[in-house]
Write a structure and sequence with these properties.
By secondary structure, the chain is an alpha+beta fold. Strands 1, 2, 3, 4, 5 and 6 form a six-stranded antiparallel β-sheet that branches. Strands 7-10 form a two-stranded antiparallel ribbon.
Length: 344
């Protein structure tokens, strides 16, 4: 694969040992990442494509520094200082980048049951660790439950207008309508979130943002979207990542993920009950986010088509399966809490 990006500006910000070369790796929607081999060490160069906001990156690094002071069972990225002693570099066009120590391993896969359970365990441990951080910076991303404030400009008319942009999007008009109906319901459902425990969360903890070795999760990546939200949102985001239209074993995998989380740092009975609301908030957030990206000419239309398909399927799957198939977790949480109370 030939790189079309000139990385000279980004690399010149750091004092690398020779030999030094760039290895292309899969990048996400919001960032460009490359592995930098320097001498006998490896680093990850991350170029922020989604914004040029120093405060967002500064907060991310604060959170990472706080987490790295704790005794974790997994690694989180360690920012590397540039020649100026800063962990954020600025290109001539204002583009931001950072360098991190490399966390060795592979991406876990949802097809491996051990990885699914391990991610539930890791999410619970990360949630516990995040509850103990105290960064100086304020959260810069709104919590998921403030969906209407976050996407005020992508209202009903603007959202349905996206369905008229192409033949493929018009073919998904029923899915646009179904998602809008879910959005209207969420306005009322969010009242049930009042009083739930809130804390710092990763905000985008999915399989692609973790690293495994064998069957164990050994690293958690990409803290760019960290914010303060209800703590159960961390788990809801991962569950949604499992609910895919082409998977015939969703229920088994979701139960395994929930078991890993509940075995490690269990949520309360009420938090378990409101998980479907949080999951739908994530699905709507993603759909509206990518609607805006298409509106702003940041993506091609086929990306939004795929997102609309996944989000509509996810909401439909939750409506059809959650109440009946996951009632046992509400009961097991109740039993666990009652036993704990009796013990004390």
């Amino acid at each position: 694969m030939t790189d079309t990006i000139d990385f000279t500006t980004y690399l010149d910000a750091y004092a690398f040992a020779e030999p030094c070369h760039i290895e292309s790796r899969e990048s996400g929607m919001n960032n460009t990442t490359r592995i930098i081999s320097s001498g006998n060490k490896k680093f990850v160069l991350r170029i922020y494509n989604n914004h040029k906001d120093m405060d967002i990156v500064r907060l991310e690094h604060e959170v990472l520094n706080d987490l790295n002071k704790q005794k974790l069972t997994f690694k989180v990225p360690i920012p590397v200082q540039n020649k100026q002693g800063e962990t954020i570099s600025v290109a001539t066009d204002g583009t931001l980048s950072s360098l991190f120590q490399f966390i060795d391993g592979d991406r876990p896969t949802v097809s491996n049951p051990a990885h699914v359970y391990a991610l539930g365990v890791t999410a619970a441990r990360l949630s516990s660790a995040m509850s103990g951080i105290n960064p100086k910076g304020l959260p810069l991303y709104s919590p998921y439950f403030m969906l209407e404030n976050t996407y005020a400009l992508m209202d009903e008319d603007a959202f349905f207008a996206m369905a008229e942009l192409s033949v493929d999007l018009k073919g998904r008009k029923s899915s646009f309508m179904a998602l809008h109906e879910e959005r209207l319901k969420l306005k009322e459902d969010c009242n049930q979130l009042v009083g739930l425990p809130e804390q710092w969360i990763h905000g985008d903890l999915v399989f692609n943002n973790t690293v495994c070795q064998g069957d164990e999760i050994v690293g958690v990546l990409d803290f760019e979207f960290t914010t303060v939200d209800v703590r159960a949102m961390e788990l809801a985001v991962i569950i949604v990542d499992i609910i895919k239209p082409d998977d015939l074993n969703i229920k088994e995998k979701v139960k395994l993920l929930l078991q890993g989380y509940q075995d490690t740092n269990p949520l309360t009975l009420h938090e378990i009950k409101i998980l479907p609301i949080l999951m739908k908030l994530r699905l709507l957030d993603v759909a509206l986010h990518f609607a805006i990206r298409l509106r702003d000419n940041l993506d091609d239309e086929e990306i939004l088509c795929g997102i609309i398909d996944q989000s509509a399927f996810g909401c439909r799957w939750i409506n059809e399966h959650w109440e009946d198939d996951f009632h046992e977790f509400s009961q097991s949480t109740r039993i666990r809490r009652e036993r704990k109370t009796a013990h004390y």
